[in-house]
Amino acid sequence: MRLLLVEDEKRMAQALCELLRLEKYEVDHYDDGINGLAAIESNIYDIAILDVMLPGMNGFEIAQKARKRSIVTPILMLTAKAELDDKVTGLDSGADDYLTKPFMTKELLARLRALGRRTLNATDGVLSYGDIKLETGTLALSCAASGESVRLSEKEYRILEYLIANKGQILTREQLAVKIWGFDSDSEYNNVEVYMSFTRKKLSFVKAKTEIKAVRGVGYELRCDDV
Ligand code: CA
């Protein structure tokens, strides 16, 4: 899971980064609202943790702007205890959950696990889009209409999962590369196309009408025009 942390208090940020990395999350940290917004809009994060009071732009504004741009990344807002109304504003702004400072690390980790499950948007471990279903436990791809199914590789699964989570949007090759292979993924850059072709073959194997459309010069989009 890749987390975005936007927090301007140095010691807090440092402690959170250390804690989250120990818990095996990949964490990127920004200390102001402007860079924080740009980061969440890159749409490569599974969860965003936003402090409310930030230089440049506050956490609520980041959340509102991101939601307006159809970014669905779950947002956990960190609020100071004195800012009780923030709770309301935070949920109105498009935040999914809030945590009042100071908080127990156990509590933070529990919230993150809950939001992480929501990211997958899975009902009983099944993700669906158009005429296809993805089983999160077995990595099986199936098509209801044809009754066919096939097992995906981990990367193929993650590509489809990412496309389903962002249905209706075009994902760039770069977003896919970073999301699936991580940063420092230059050498893997061309693999996006290779894996797209593998994934498409699996879609046609199960005779799905759902397709991965390439948008020239932009990226890829999941489409199912025919169901
Ligand atoms: Ca702050």
Describe the structure.
This protein is of the alpha/beta class and 227 residues long. It has two domains: 2-120, Response regulator (Rossmann fold, 3-Layer(aba) Sandwich), CATH 3.40.50; 126-223, Arc Repressor Mutant, subunit A (Orthogonal Bundle), CATH 1.10.10. It is 40% helix and 23% strand. The protein is built from eight helices and twelve strands. The strands form three sheets. It has a five-stranded parallel beta sheet with strand order 2-1-3-4-5, with helices on both faces. β8 (140-143) and β9 form a beta hairpin. α2 packs parallel to α3 (59-68). The chain is elongated. The protein starts with a strand and ends with a strand. Calcium ion (CA) binds at residues 8-9, 51, 53-54.
Record keyword descriptors for this entry.
227 residues; Rossmann fold; 8 helices; binds calcium ion; Arc Repressor Mutant, subunit A; alpha/beta; 12 strands
Number of strands: 12
Q: What gap, in angstroms, lies between the N and C termini? A: 32 Å
Query: Largest sheet, described in full?
Result: 5 strands, parallel
What structural class is derived from the secondary structure elements?
alpha/beta
CATH architecture of the largest domain: 3-Layer(aba) Sandwich
- CATH class of the largest domain, please? Alpha Beta
> Spans of 5+ residues with little confidence (pLDDT < 50)?
none
Total of DSSP H or I helical runs spanning 4+ residues: 8
Mean pLDDT: 87
- Outline, from the CA principal axes? elongated
Question: What percent strand?
Answer: 15-25%
The portion of residues assigned to helices is 40-55%
Radius of gyration: 19 Å
Q: What is the assigned CATH homologous superfamily of the largest domain?
A: Response regulator
Strand line-up across the major sheet: 2-1-3-4-5
**Secondary-structure element pattern, one letter each:** EHEHEHEHEHEEEEHEHHEE
**What small molecules does the structure contain?**
calcium ion
CATH topology of the largest domain: Rossmann fold
